[in-house]
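This part of the workshop introduces the protein records we will be handling. An example says more than a description, so a record of this kind follows:
>
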Amino acid sequence: MPEQLANQQAALARIQSFLSDSTERVLIGIIGKPGAGKSTLSKFLMSKLPKEFVTVVPMDGYHLSNKVLKDLKRADRKGAPDTFDVAGFASLVKRIRSEQTQNIYYPIFDRAIEESIAAQGVVTSDTKVVIIEGNYLLHDAGGWEAVKDLLDESWMVDVDDDKRIARLISRHIAYGKEPEAAKAWAKGTDEANAQLIERGRARADFVVRID
């Protein structure tokens, strides 16, 4: 069963210890249901840590494009495990682990346009801790099972589900959905994905409570 990290400060202290003590690059996966607060935790950590040595790599850059999703008839399930370039993402994580003497570029997902922008982020050769952020880092099917063993630690973000769903609805509205459509997506597609993500909780090394 996962151990507990009581709050954001405990998570910060753990990364600071890696920066002080580790001689090798450390990869930490932050996992959570949609709206759980993965990005909130990552932003807090990055506000307290030296950016020349720590970076965040979001899984979301590996969303399949809207055109590809439409062609595959998966557009109404965007965010599900099979709507990502899983092999491409796993290859990136392998490179981050093994190629530590060169810069590695990766795509960033832009919510404003609902598409990814290539080579927008970079892991430099100076980076000592990489925070890999995503929903399916503990998923055990569809190619995702390759990811967990590439991480040094995996942290599951824990949050009250009512707060999480309310946050999701607000986010969908902020990015252009009508209120009823936002509610339907949060309680439909997002919730189906949330239940899938929850199944990976027992495989996490730590559970982090941030609310």
